[in-house]
């Protein structure tokens, strides 16, 4: 797929640019990434699946491409990745429902009676 | 409800402060608000219901409080407001599902076979 | 427009893929969509206009394409859709202004005097 | 903790209200939640950990409270939950870095020379 | 770069369309923009750099293109723009870390003991 | 103000907890913060003002409290902070307007005629 190749090329170019700038901020981010995604109490594979779910919610295509690839390298099956994506689908609705609770409270205050 | 009163008091205080600062930006925002929420091709009530839906998705409690109150003043019923909130619930999931399409493409590329 | 066609094609492909996976999560999402967008206290057209406003705020192009098309099928005029989009423009600023209230409180605490 | 109890009470109240309204949208959301969080290719515990990570990124406190509790019921240890939270920390920076790539491209275009 | 030219062309087309619609909302937004980005206590250049940082966090490519160009016109150097982008990188992580504090509180409640 | 004190206390508690966990991820984040907010091509004060603007857009109250305080320590005046907040107000509307451009394209396609 052309889009995937483009993402990979763009990532390489931008990272190269940041190294060329000798960006200390980029160096600290790279260190942060390294210490996050390594086996710990959770195996790296599970961490990558968490990252896949977050990438979908964040709509970060470059992150999806990266963390799905990493999850596959770590042995994740197609069905396991699908289920991480499905959790992200469900979680998309979570904040809306939670935020909506306050709307219900405002309505309750304004209508001060049992629902129609 | 105490939270609602607090929101209203905080809004009044902050708006008063911005007027005290003689903020031209705040003045332009007030003008923007005024020209947006008036009867047009859509009646103000429908615009307020659109704003209720957006407030839930944005998790802006002060906006929910304001636009639900305005919608009620414009004649919206409890059930109509509920349905605007329900659209927001459903729309919470929309971007996650749309974003997830790219995850499916990456998976398709990596597994290059029919689903397990 | 090529982009619109691409969105439609990508949506069909991804939905087909999720059906092929026999995703129960996708089935539940489809049911959710169906029960949300039907005539109720609010006509479907108004619900679609609420969804158009939310799509703009969410920057969900696929959602914009879908809900604008549905609104048009339900009889929405160009001017009505424009006004739903305008509400979304205005609401973009809402959360920033509301969030900024806390910044004003922090400033008030730190400067503890009338504005300069 | 008082805040946690409040969240739980608010969730119960709001869900009760939605049932009282006989909201078909809420019913479909409940079904969606049920089919998402059950053992599949991934055990429910891993799905809950993915949801914990997403809750942090989404700043959904009610979701954090729920999914951390569920993860603990499913046997997750404190350290495992911490690592899910740590992935969310790292992923917070992901989109900013990815978005920033375009800023680098614009700079490249404008300065059309090697970095200073 | 083709993408930058496309953004500029799309912006011109959309603005032209909104003027053609005689959108009062668009007029108010233009006024808002004008009063915001002018020399004040902060020089316009610094305001443009703040806008660059926000554009990266918001993933608004059209905004990045515009505000970087404006900053350059106002005399910003490549290194100054880079540092505004770097602040945005760092700030991407801020909300995740702050949100995660509540996750730590929930964990504290559930494990009610010193960390493992 | 009680809320500000609470934020500060919560931040201290959470940071202490993360240190107690010996979180390597938290250490990397602290390093990242340190290298970002120091004098460079831009003085630290300007970086703090950029961070104030981003905090408002991100609705990160703890970040607002921190970066406004830091900006004041670095010599920022009340009016300078206000103007950073005003830029954030204006930028709230930016993405909505940019996202809305696609809505205009879809409308253009569907109505294929000059505006009503």
Fold and architecture overview:
The structure is a homohexamer of 116-residue chains. Chain A is mainly alpha-helical and 116 residues long. Chain A folds into two domains: 1-36, no CATH class; 38-116, AhpD-like. Helix content of chain A is 81%, strand content 0%. Chain A is built from five helices and no strands. Chain A has helices spanning 2-20, 24-36, 44-58, 61-73, 78-111. In chain A, helix 3 (44-58) packs antiparallel against helix 4. The model of chain A has no long low-confidence stretch (mean pLDDT 87). Chains in contact: A-B, A-C, A-D, A-E, A-F, B-C, B-D, B-E, B-F, C-D, C-E, C-F, D-E, D-F, E-F. The interface between A and D is large, with 56 and 56 residues.
Give the gist of this structure.
Six copies of one chain form a homohexamer. Chain A contains five helices and no strands.
Topology summary:
The structure is a homohexamer of 116-residue chains.
Chain A: H1 2-20, H2 24-36, H3 44-58, H4 61-73, H5 78-111
Helix pairs in contact in A: 3-4, 3-5
Give me some keywords for this one.
homohexamer; 116 residues; mainly alpha; AhpD-like; 2 domains; 5 helices; extended
